Amino acid sequence: MTESETRAESPVRAYNEWDPLEEVIVGSVDGAHFPPWHVAVGAPLSPEQRKVFRENAGRPFPADQVAAARDELDQLVEILAGEGVKVRRPEARDHSRSYAGRDWSSTGLYDAMPRDSLLVVGEDIIEAPMSWRSRHHAASAFRPLLKEYFRQGARWSSPPMPELSDELYVDGWTDQPDGEPFRSVITEFEPTFDAADFIRCGRDIFAQRSHVTNALGIEWLRRHLGDTYRVHELVLADDHPMHIDASLMPLAPGKLLIHPDRVPEVPRIFKDWEVRTAPLPVIPDGHPLYMTSKWINMNVLMIDEHRMVVEAQDEPMRRFAEEWEIEAIPCPFRNFNSFGGSFHCATVDVRRRGALLSYF
Ligand code: ARG
């Protein structure tokens, strides 16, 4: 088999966030547990969220909320399948089981957000070297799929497995005082990143350092991808950064959706793009959001550059899409949102039909 034949067959191929979606992995909330308390878990959370995580450490998420979120995921699967997309799911796992590193042990979190643990760049599916001990084996939920894709011709990569020893975490870390530059809870002890700290626009990939992604992690990906791609590090105005996909979302060539405060200066590279600010979220105050802000409303999934999945109760986002000539496909997802993400987080696009292009 020649190299070009292998390439033609790879079941993994996606270069951006908007080409027509052909195959997608949708996460699962089954077996979701609060992780053991650890400074790195608390860092990206608000003070109220930290309290809930401390108090519930090691316990399952409330069963009724898991059931409601599961039902919404099933509706998302149906919608995507109805649009002709091949949908894959992980097997349910029990996240209360304990595992160990060299000098630590932990239980798990969930398999709800494949976007955090897997990064597809072209034909390469990359397992993220995650910095939370509770997510150390997050990618393994998808191993049966990864092996299948590999057998069929995809590239499959895994960065050096992080040791997650105490040196990775800043001893005595506290939030930076208001107005001061972001102070990460992780050091440069070894490369770590979550896949969701990267967002793809063809040859250009945008990254942020966060409480889970360090400079070495970004550099690892840059060197791994080589000259074909340009990995740009952006500095956004997020006090508790973890995952870029509720701050900056390229929706289509020339269309950039941004958070109203976190992108005080649109990076110059987007100068020829139209940039619009996300509408105010409508999630009511009492609704549980264990891990994110309400700006999870902008965490949309593009089926192609003219269609996007939006939360069914989010009227402002539906109108926003339609005003921008994007058809909004509603799906109830508010219960899923409680777990820390929306449509973009809950999925990973395995294959989108399109070529590697430069959009700048
Ligand atoms: N940190 C973002 C916020 O609180 C949420 C990002 C969620 N993204 C994800 N891939 N899990 O607004």
Automatic annotation (TrEMBL):
Domain of life assignment: Bacteria
Transferase is among the record's keywords: yes
Entry keywords, A to Z: Transferase
Signal peptide (UniProt feature, chain positions): none
Cited InterPro entries: AmidinoTrfase (IPR033195)
UniProt-listed CDD domains: amidinotransferase_AGAT-like
Similarity field: Belongs to the amidinotransferase family.
Protein name: Amidinotransferase
Species in which this protein is naturally found: Streptomyces huasconensis
